[in-house]
Structures are given as structure tokens and as C-alpha cells.
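Same chain as my last thread, 458 residues:
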Amino acid sequence: MKRAFRFDLNRCSGCHACILACANENRSVLSQNWRQLVTLNEFRHPGLPLVHLSLACNHCNEPACLINCPANAYHRDPASGAVVIDPDRCLGCAYCTWACPFDAPKYNSEKGVIEKCDFCLERLQKGSEPACVTCCPTGALQLVERCIEDIDPPRIPGFSRTKLKPAIEFVPLRENSSFPEVTAPQDPAAISKALSRMIIPPPRKISLHSEWALLIFTTLVTILVSLFTVGVWRSWQLNPLVFLAAGTGAMFFSLIHLGRKERAWRALCNWRTSWLSLEILFYFLFMGSSGLFLLFLPNLPFWGWIGTAVGFCTLFAIDRIYQVAMKVGPGNFHSGQTMFNGLYLTGILAAAPLLYVPAGLLKLGLYLHRKILAYRKKSGIRPFFSLLRVIAGFIVPVLFITVLRKKIFLPPLFAAIAVVSGDLIDRGEFYQDLEAMTPRQQMLNDFLQCMQSMEKEV
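reply #2:
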């Protein structure tokens, strides 16, 4: 048996007493408070109920924050089941804020670390209830003891269904709940159109503007892996010092987004479960093995192929990192993923059609599929950049490799520059397409789905 929150949707009045209690107890800033209140139908659609949902950390049985944290900064209190973060271990990468669909970890920009609800652990140890529970005037928020394995939360607006086994149970809305009767004529389509102008999407957690350093880092890693692979494959003479300097520069860009850069070494602490830790580990192994080959073992191709294998493992780990926020089709594959970019660039540099043709067709197919979906949704089309991406990334490289190279003796490097230019556009769109789910975003999605259902019923 473990402690768990119990929330009754029929009782919550949206008074924010739980949020104020949490802020007072933990001396947190309200704009970054550990508990939040999200509302279904905050714009008062006359055909939908008004429902409030109060959420903090759910102290899951399979916590995404603990599993994905590269620094091993999270631990579980064995007595209460609370998932707690140690700020002295946190390196401020904010990856846990991507992984948690309940928006529980909060990044403190002043301290450069993550903070979150700790279940009011000190109060629990003294026999008291969490501050939010104590101060709830309607009894909507309670603390209970439950077997987490037996909790199966129903479909609640604003609450994401996951496999994390959150320690919270809900009392759903009663079927006979009465809501104010609407006497004015209803036109769901007109109401939805009017309300859509009022809706402001919640701020994005991930964007190209906030992750530009990671765009540069992942692009440089892709180029380095491709260059090294072709160097081993085609016996190119790469300058070891320039190659290692570029690899060191790439690591510099990976540090920019950290809140506590002096703790960057802690990124290797959770390699067993965190793909972010594995990415860093593989990258260090790639730079070490490639440097060893280029400096001391250039006549032993076997060691070069080991470096190549580790390099593509790095690209695979990079792509796995972003799966927590990837929501594209088909199969959750994106044309801007580093593995596809690396294979395509390697094929172009090596002038190997058996590699760049299938890799290029796969990337082009995924890109066009995404643009067709964007056209249907009338958002995210970006026609100028889309056309530039196709021309620079696919048409120009193929012309360089198949036609111009033979007529004016252009080396594959010119085609590779075009490929990288196109992939930079695609990679930029990749970051714009990422969506870290939050209760506010989930509530908005549920609200829009409810409006669409009402329109279909009419």
C-alpha cells in the first residue's frame, strides 16, 4: 500500500486554495508553482460542463522523470512512495520536463535546476497530510492509501493516459450531474468558431528558438559520423586534429542549454535507463575510438569500423531521446531524424547509390507525407522553406552526383553541402514539430474534441 492523491471532480470549485497552500508551504513562485489547476470549458461553452482538475506530481510507480533523468537526481522515498529530486545532483538539462506528461518538474531559471512536488514529505513524516489536501475547502483533494497497481484512472479531461501508473485516483463526474440549462438557441458551429478566436494555446516547452544549440550539436554529430564512416569506407585522409577539434566544439554546444554546466559530468550517471545518458556515453566512445583510429591506427580498418558502429549508435540514441515528445506519422518517424540524415549524407559523400537512393527516398517520402498532413490541417506548411528543403536536400545533391560531377568534376563534398543545408531546414522543423504534453495542452485537446463531437451530432 502506498500514499496516493484522490481527486473528486464533482467537488472542485476551482478556488485555487490548493495552489496557494502549496506555494506557501514550499515558498515557491506562483508562476512556477508545483501544483496547477486546469479547467475544461474555461470559455463557458453553453453545451459543455465546467470541470476543474488540480494536479501536481502524481509520484508514479513508473516515473518518467526518474527513468529518463541522466544525472540520477531523482529517487523514491521508500516509506511514502514520493518521487523526490536532489537539487545538488540536478544538472538543469530539463529533459524530465519533456518526459513527464503531467508537467510536474518545474525548471527554476534562477537556480538552474529542477524543482517539483515532493508530496510534502516532511509533513508526511510528522503524520500530517500535504498542504494542498489540508487546505482544500470542499474536500475535492484527499490523501488515501492504495495499491498503485490496482488504480486504473478513468478517462479524465486534461489527464493523459500513460503507462506510468500515477498514484492518483479520480471520482469522475456523476452521470446525473445537473448543469445550468441553456435557453438561448444553440448553433454549435457558430459557437465553436467564436470560441476558437479566444483560445490561446499554452506556451511550448520545446521550440527551435529554445533548442538552437541542440540543433547545431546534433547536426555536427551527424556530419562527423558521416565523414568518419566515409573516411574508413573510401580510405579518405581526415585530419585528426581538425576532426577532434570539431568534435570538441560540438560538445560545447551541447553544454549551452544546461542550467548547471559544471555538473555536466553527471550526464553519464544513468546510462542504464536514460537515453540522454547513453547519447553522451556513445558520443564519448565515438570520439575516443575515432581519435584512436585517426591518430594511431589508420592502417587497421577494423578499428575504424568499430568507431563507425559507435557513431551510428550515437545517432540512434539521439533519436530515441526525442521519442518522449515525438508525435508524427507514420510510425513516429520524422524525415529530420539524425539516423536518416547520417545514412543519406554518408551515401552522398561516398557516391554510393545503393545507400543514398533508399535513404533519400525514405526521407523524401516522410517529408512529403508530413506536408500533406499539414496542408489538410492548414498549419505548419511553410511553403517557402518546404520548397527550399526539397530543392537543396534532394534535387541538387542528385544532380551533383549523377550529372554535374561527371561534366565539371565536382567532388561529392559539394553535394554534401547541399544535403546538410536541406537537412538543417528539416531539422529545424523537427524541433518545431516536437510537442511535450502537459495537462493544459491535454485539456485544450479534449475541449476541442468535445466541440467537434457536438458539431457532428447536430
